[in-house]
Design a protein that fits this description.
Elements: H1 6-11, H2 18-24, E1 33-34, E2 40-41, H3 49-54, E3 56-62, H4 72-85, E4 90-94, H5 99-103, E5 111-112, E6 115-118, H6 120-124, H7 130-150, E7 167-169, E8 179-181, E9 192-194, E10 196-198, H8 203-210, H9 214-222, E11 225-228, E12 234-236, H10 243-249, E13 257-261, E14 266-269, H11 284-293, E15 296-300, H12 305-320, E16 324-331, H13 333-339, H14 352-371, E17 376-381, H15 388-400, E18 404-408, H16 410-413, H17 419-431, H18 446-458, E19 462-465, H19 467-479, E20 485-486, E21 509-518, E22 523-528, E23 547-548, E24 554-555
Parallel strand pairs: 3-15, 3-16, 4-14, 4-15, 7-10, 16-17, 17-18, 19-21, 20-22
Antiparallel strand pairs: 1-2, 2-13, 5-6, 6-13, 8-9, 11-12, 13-14, 21-22, 23-24
Helix pairs in contact: 4-17, 7-8, 7-10, 9-10, 13-14, 14-15
Length: about 550
């Protein structure tokens, strides 16, 4: 018998109308802005700050992942199904997938197996056009910058060598990383170096996800730092009168999207910044929307807890005054084998010694979550080649640390496979053990904030600053951006800035190569190592196995 793929399972589900999903959240049909029968946008006036404070926010994060990821989205959706099955009103709130990974290496990001959000193909491919709007707003600012360089009547005397803003496209295309624009004569602009980032790396994406309402969105767009004039004066997007035009392009994109899970529970999906180069969580607006409409909200943060969870807690929760009640830490046996020394071809081969040696990675993540005064629950996302010996070892070791470790079978069984996880999470929430405290205060000196993250979360012995980073620190001081949050950009493959150091590395130094400024998002971005803002496609991209028939039915998308 053929094993069903994710898309087979998703296409086999008969969806109910989105107005029926909305009714479960007590949303009137007239409040929906429908995109067909199965997708709708939600108006911002549904947010109720009192309910946001009183309802329960659950974060799903993970140990340091293998390249395939450890299933945070699948666990998030499965946990939501499980919570609803045990009688809790729960909504999952997720990021939107980027087309780069969809056609590149990871495939889609709508969950997997019997823990998916649907319509899966729509969510993975264009969805409601939010990424397109973000891309257009970003590139409008680029066009305005180059037009100002060309202008004879309204020039700001901008120094093209200092322009930091790049164009974006939502595709993995390495040939666009570094380009020369403005060639072909004086009518075509001023020749200069430029480049493209992938859309999730755009500051416009970060701003959309940090904005609290439309007025805040406009202000943040105006605060985008572009570069300097020839006489060293800073230039912002507001100087080009760009913010309103950019906001016009984002007037619909700012509204969260409502869809459904396979078990017909509500799912809100909005925004999609990457976690190794941006804040890695869905929008503040979407999270508050979920908390306004349901008692439990399950959300996820990208990559390992040292990246997505740290940023979710230190940046998003502080900015939005959110109070998470529990953190679910996803672990897989294959990832523990990896951190214990297994080679790629050994990831799926049972080996208790590798698991024992790799447990140190999970242990460090548990310690980190507790540093925020939050009690974690470990969800063991199981695969067919995991053994009882390996699973029981993790459960027993977590018990020694005073942590609940629960097998999560959401991929294979949906909500039925996550009921025990849901019950465990509820017990943590109702025990009131969590008293969320961020690792740093935004008003602390920049270097203090960086070093707290590096030492407390990564386990580094210290921090070095390259010459460029030191110059950037002086620029931040001069511009008055010291009280911004810190959004670290580093490899997702290690606690350190060296991706080959797996497990729980110790006595290492992290090196800050440079520090970028995202003034509209109100964070600075220390870059550890050479972080890629525009990925390339692998030798055999995922797109090669995708097909569409004459009836428009898609296969090979997962």
């Amino acid at each position: 018998m053929k094993m069903l793929t994710d898309i087979d399972i998703a296409q086999g589900k008969e969806l109910i109308h989105i107005k029926e999903i909305a009714s479960k959240l007590n949303i009137k049909e007239d409040d929906l802005e429908m995109y067909g029968k199965y997708k709708a946008k939600l108006p911002l006036n549904l947010i109720d700050e009192k309910k946001v404070k009183n309802n329960n926010l659950i974060l799903v994060t993970a140990i340091t992942p293998t390249p395939a990821g450890e299933g945070k989205t699948t666990v998030s959706i499965g946990l939501t199904e499980g919570l609803n099955r045990i009688g809790k009103q729960a909504t999952v709130v997720l990021r939107e997938p980027s087309l780069g990974p969809v056609f590149g290496i990871k495939g889609g990001a709508a969950g997997g197996g019997y823990s998916q959000v649907v319509p899966m193909e729509d969510i993975n491919l264009h969805f409601t056009g939010d990424f397109n709007a973000i891309e257009k707003a970003n590139n409008l600012l680029s066009a305005l910058i180059d037009n100002n360089l060309q202008s004879k009547c309204c020039s700001f005397n901008m120094d093209p060598r200092t322009i930091l803003w790049k164009r974006v496209i939502d595709m993995n295309d390495r040939s666009l990383r570094n380009i020369i624009i403005g060639l072909g004569g004086t009518a075509n602009g001023i020749p200069r170096e430029d480049g493209f980032n992938i859309t999730p790396a755009s500051e416009v994406m970060a701003i959309l996800c940090m904005a609290t309402d439309f007025a805040d969105l406009k202000k943040r767009l105006g605060d985008i730092f572009i570069g300097f004039t020839f006489d060293k004066k800073p230039i912002f997007a507001r100087d080009l009168k760009a913010q309103d035009a950019m906001a016009i392009l984002l007037k619909d994109a700012i509204k969260p999207n409502l869809v459904q899970t396979l078990e017909e529970n509500p799912a809100i999906i909005h925004g999609g910044p990457f976690a190794n180069i941006a804040q890695g969580t869905n929008s503040i607006i979407a999270t508050k929307m979920g908390l306004s409409l349901s008692n439990y909200v399950v959300t996820e943060a990208g990559f390992g807890a040292d990246l997505g969870a740290e940023k979710f807690l230190d940046i998003k929760c502080v900015a939005a005054d959110l109070n998470p009640k529990a953190v679910v830490l996803v672990a897989t046996i294959r990832a523990l084998r990896h951190h214990g020394g297994a080679k790629k071809e050994e990831y799926n081969t049972p080996n208790i010694e590798f698991v024992k040696d790799g447990f140190c990675n999970l242990e460090k993540h548990i310690e980190n979550i507790r540093k925020f005064n939050i009690e974690p629950v470990v969800a063991i996302n199981t695969f067919i080649n995991d053994t009882y010996e390996e699973i029981n070892y993790i459960i027993d070791k977590c018990k020694e640390l005073g942590v609940h470790a629960v097998v999560s079978e959401g991929w294979a069984k949906g909500g039925k496979g996550t009921e025990k996880l849901a019950e465990t999470v509820v017990s943590i929430v109702e025990s009131h053990k969590t008293h969320f405290t961020p690792i740093y205060n935004w008003d602390e000196p920049v270097k203090t904030k960086i070093e707290k993250i590096a030492k407390e979360i990564y386990g580094a012995a210290g921090v070095d600053y390259d010459k460029k980073a030191k110059l950037n620190l002086r620029r931040i001081e001069r511009l008055g951006f010291n009280n911004f949050a810190v959004c670290m950009a580093k490899t997702q493959k290690s606690f350190s800035d060296n991706e080959t150091l797996v497990g729980r590395p110790k006595d290492f130094i992290v090196t800050v190569r440079e520090i970028e400024i995202a003034a509209g998002a109100e964070f600075i971005i220390p870059i550890l190592g050479r972080m890629m803002r525009m990925p390339g496609l692998p030798g055999k991209p995922a797109s090669e196995k995708m097909e569409i028939d004459n009836d428009g039915v898609i296969s090979g998308l997962s």
